[in-house]
Amino acid sequence: MYSEAQQENLVKFGKHLEMLRKREGLSFRKLAQRCDIDYSNLKKYEKGEINISLLTLIDLASALGVTHQELMDF
Fold first, then answer.
1. H helix intervals, the chain
2. What is the pTM of this model?
3. Which pLDDT does position 74 carry in this prediction?
4. In CATH, what is the architecture of 4-69?
5. What per-residue confidence (pLDDT) applies to 1?
6. % of the chain at pLDDT higher than 90
7. Which residues form a coiled coil (predicted)?
8. Which of 21, 47, 58, 74 is the most core-located residue (most Cβ within 10 A)?
9. How far apart are CA 46 and CA 11, in angstroms?
10. What is the pLDDT of residue 26?
């Protein structure tokens, strides 16, 4: 489905997202609620299983209290 390089980037982003979520002390459900997304998708983002949309990235950055650049600095 994804190339090896693309999959690697999804996994790196997911680990970074998980670190930011935990740093803020947020559960999957709480962060998902703040972004109005399904928490099961949030789990998949953190595992690098699915690609994320630009609008979801913007919502996540806002919910985590970070800039878009910080969210993408993985």
1. 4-23, 28-35, 39-47, 54-64, 68-72
2. 0.92
3. 92
4. Orthogonal Bundle (1.10)
5. 80
6. 97
7. none
8. 21
9. 7
10. 97
Q: Token pair for residue 42?
A: 């949030």
User: Quick one: pLDDT band at residue 20, thresholds 50, 70, 90?
Assistant: very high
CA 9 to chain centre: 12
- Over range 27-53, report the average pLDDT: 96
Write down the mean pLDDT value for the chain. Answer: 96
DSSP 50: S
The 8-class DSSP code of residue 2 comes to -
3-state secondary structure of 55: helix
Q: 43-74 b/e with 16+ CB inside 10 Å = b? A: ebbbebeeebeeebbebbbebbebeeeebeee
Cα dist. 17→38, 41, 42 in Å? 16, 13, 9
Q: How is residue 36 written in tokens? A: 């109005």
State how far the Cα of 73 lies from the Cα of 31, in Å rounded to an integer. Answer: 19
